Amino acid sequence: MKRFLTTILLVLMSAFLLCGCSGEAPYDQRTVLLYFTNSSHDGLVYETSNISKAEYMNVEGLVGLVLDELFAGPSGTECFSVIPKGMSVRGVSISSSENGTVNVDLSGDFYNSLKKSRYASDELLARYSIICTLCQFDEIKKVKLYINREDLRNNYGEGDIVAPMGSESVLMNSPSSVETQTEKFVTLYFTDKDGKKLYPETRKATMTDNSIEKTIVNELIRGPVSDDLERTIDPDTELVSVETAEGICFVNFASGFMSNIQSGSDEEKTALYSIVNSLTRLDSIEKVQVLIDGKKPENDAHQLFSNPIERNVYIIEENEK
Asked: Is-contact 229 201, C-beta < 8 A?
């Protein structure tokens, strides 16, 4: 089945309305959108696929067929599946109490597989992938997920039960609607006890002043969630401003930023590149200039702050702690 790759970033899942492109499918087939994630695991992307109308007789059959396609994974190289391998559809039913809600029971090692992912965002992206794929159909308003006949729960099966979800429950990145966005997945870089390498940590953050740049820096100041990682910036650091112009992000800290960091040390290097590497994950930023009270630091033994600097991939250890 031939698929044509299309990418899109989502917010509140307005993108599922794009299924109108199905008019190009042969009369006996139906075009569907299969939602995966991007290479950064901070947004959803989709591929289109044609399914035969003769292969399903009702909504339940449509759900099973489409999820089989989704679980098979993307055909292109720019999409990545977040559904754990080996998952299958155990059963599908229409809710008798909630109009437009379908119950989907999945079979497989859902929680443990997602725990092993190097992206913390995958727990949410996995369910978003299913929700967005199914809610593109007019017949389906919400999806209630079960794992091995048990209610889907947050925190890898140990948290609260996840209620039926519709497209309005999905919050992802969208350049066209950043002003309405309240949460976003961000990938940040922290160090370990040795203090020489940086490790990625992806998590959902509340937007600060509708600025993704300011959100990223504030999250770095907050420090890592993982117990295996160490902060790179003092928690009492005051962020004065963040501005981006012509591909350069200017991050201005108050004077306390350098007070506990020895110039030319590994600590200074990891602090700087945790900021640079986190911000340059954004397509709009090529370089970062760190300022102290609006000026370049005077004590700059290794000339790290003299000019805007680019991403340093050599300091990153891609295997998360």
From this structure: yes
**Residues contacting residue 146 through CB under 8 Å, at least 6 positions apart:** 90, 103, 104, 105, 106, 152
Q: 66 is written with which tokens? A: 């489409």
Residues 7-64: tens digit of each pLDDT: 333 433 333 333 333 345 667 788 899 999 988 887 788 899 998 888 888 999 999 9
Instruction: Tell me which of 1 and 165 has the higher pLDDT.
Output: 165
Which two three-digit tokens encode residue 131? 């929700």
Closest of 152, 147, 232, 151 to residue 195, by C-alpha = 232
* CB contact at 8 A, 132 and 174: no
DSSP state for residue 225 in the 8-state scheme: S
Distances (CA, A) of 247 to 216, 243, 314: 16, 10, 22
Given a contact cutoff of 8 angstroms between Cβ atoms, the answer to whether 50 and 26 are in contact is yes
Q: Are 99 and 111 in contact (CB under 8 A)?
A: no
Task: Tell me which residue of 37, 312, 44, 43 sits closest to 189, measured CA to CA.
Answer: 312
Q: How many whole angstroms separate alpha carbon 83 and alpha carbon 73?
A: 8
One-letter amino acid for residue 133 of the chain? T
